[in-house]
Design a protein that fits this description.
Helix content: 40-55%
Strand content: 15-25%
Strand order of the largest sheet: 3-4-2-1-5-6-8-7
Structural class: alpha/beta
Number of strands: 14
Order of helices and strands: HEHEHEEEHEHEEHHEHEHEEHEHEHHHHH
Length: 426
């Protein structure tokens, strides 16, 4: 009798636990997939912030079937990387994402208290969501999952802070830190399903590449070295220009409109075509300034070039997936504080490089980021392009093993809703 009663009690407990687990999982899935994901983006650096937020919004919709609202305070900059955006429209649906204009505080006409409740709120890249909306979050039952999506960093401390909560005493709502990064102990990097196959197909297709370059009015077969340069200004850019002028074969350098293009136009006043979209020739170097590309086309540009200069957050991630040699120009900070972030990245990136490859790569990165003379470091870097390309394939596989940022965000949200369920309305 005692054994029978024990078995009955044991089986009953197992049944209860299974039912509870099922209920928790159902609650988690309903919370994540049925609710609104509200993302706030303040456009600080013109394109890096909105570039990240737009990619992640599209991916959450396309690959995870989520309802995403993206609040943006600068629709004009947004339009430059997404031509479908109407800067005069306060609410619009683009590629399944509801895009909303986030007005400045002094012109705000949004009744934040009347917004539909969100399941997840993402405060992206050091922006600050409106105080009135924070109060709405605090009054919501159950409260939304509040995620602070941080800037990309390879610094060691990031792993220890990823996923930690920050209690907001005045609001009775926790905020969780979510760090993109280069290791399994971070949130990973933005990466869409099928991207690798798409880029591989493009690289293998001469027809596709020709069609792409024709959209930029460029006959790409005329050039033996193709360089994309999305960068901040550099005190010694003329030395690099001179190296390309003296290159034994034709060099194409494509530069998006902006401060760097304007600086070059001032530096080379005899080349008025720089700012009118013409291809300007300086000996063996040919420079083309072009309008900003939509994000899918920018991905193809990186794959089509032999060397990519990238800056900030979005373009560095995309350069990894293109697999070509790249150099990252980090946003400069006072007293060269940005060099700590640069070295942290190089420690990861170059860890498995042969010493003969790692040394010139690191020197080239350092010279590009602190306004040093570029002649010697470019001369050391250029002959290694093939070897760097081969190494980048290996490095890319390491990063892919960490999972993609959007999927990791969804998994994180599911876990949080399982851990802190609220059945009061069920």
């Amino acid at each position: 009798m005692a054994v029978s009663a024990y078995r009955t009690g044991y089986n009953g407990a197992i049944t209860f636990l299974n039912q509870l687990a099922g209920r928790l999982l159902q609650h988690s899935n309903q919370s994540v997939y049925n609710g609104i994901w509200r993302i706030f983006c303040s456009v600080v650096d013109n394109f890096g912030d909105i570039g990240i937020c737009w990619r992640i919004s599209r991916q959450l919709v396309a690959e995870h079937g989520l309802k995403v609202q993206l609040w943006v305070d600068d629709l004009a900059s947004f339009q430059r990387i997404c031509p479908q955006i109407n800067p005069k429209c306060v609410t619009q649906s683009v590629l399944g994402v509801e895009v909303c204009y986030w007005p400045a505080a002094q012109e705000s006409v949004v009744n934040w208290q009347q917004l539909p409740a969100a399941a997840v709120v993402i405060e992206a890249l050091a922006c600050t969501i409106p105080a009135a909306y924070k109060q709405q979050m605090a009054s919501q039952q159950p409260a939304p999952l509040w995620i602070n999506l941080e800037y990309l960093s390879a610094e060691p401390w990031v792993e220890g802070c990823h996923g930690l909560s920050s209690p907001q005493a005045a609001l009775a709502v926790n905020k969780y830190f979510f760090f993109p990064g280069f290791t399994k102990l971070t949130g990973g990097l933005l990466y869409e399903q099928g991207l690798a196959q798409q880029l591989a197909t493009f690289i293998e297709s001469k027809q596709d590449q020709t069609a792409f370059w024709q959209k930029l009015a460029i006959k790409h077969t005329d050039y033996q070295l193709k360089v994309s340069m999305f960068a901040y200004s550099h005190a010694h850019i003329s030395e690099l220009i001179q190296q390309w002028q003296q290159h034994p074969a034709k060099v194409l350098c494509v530069i998006p409109q902006g401060d760097l293009a304007n600086a070059l136009a001032a530096q080379y006043p005899d080349c008025p075509g720089l700012l009118t979209g013409d291809i300007v020739q300086l000996d063996n170097l040919h420079i083309k300034v072009f309008s900003f590309l939509a994000q899918p086309d920018y991905d193809l540009l990186l794959a089509a070039c032999d060397v990519n200069f990238v800056r900030g957050e979005d373009s560095i991630i995309r350069a990894h997936w293109a697999g070509k040699p790249f150099v990252w120009q980090i946003y400069r900070q006072q007293e060269n504080a940005h060099l700590l972030k640069l070295q942290a990245f190089l420690d990861h990136y170059c860890r498995q490089m042969p010493a003969g490859l790692a040394a010139p790569v690191q020197q080239w990165y350092l010279d590009w980021n602190i306004d040093r003379n570029l002649t010697n470091s470019w001369q050391q870097f250029y002959p290694l392009l093939r070897e760097i390309t081969d190494y980048n394939q290996q490095w890319r596989q390491q990063l892919l093993a960490n999972g993609d940022l959007a999927s990791n965000l969804v998994h994180f949200a599911k876990k949080k809703f399982i851990i802190t369920p609220n059945f009061s309305q069920q």
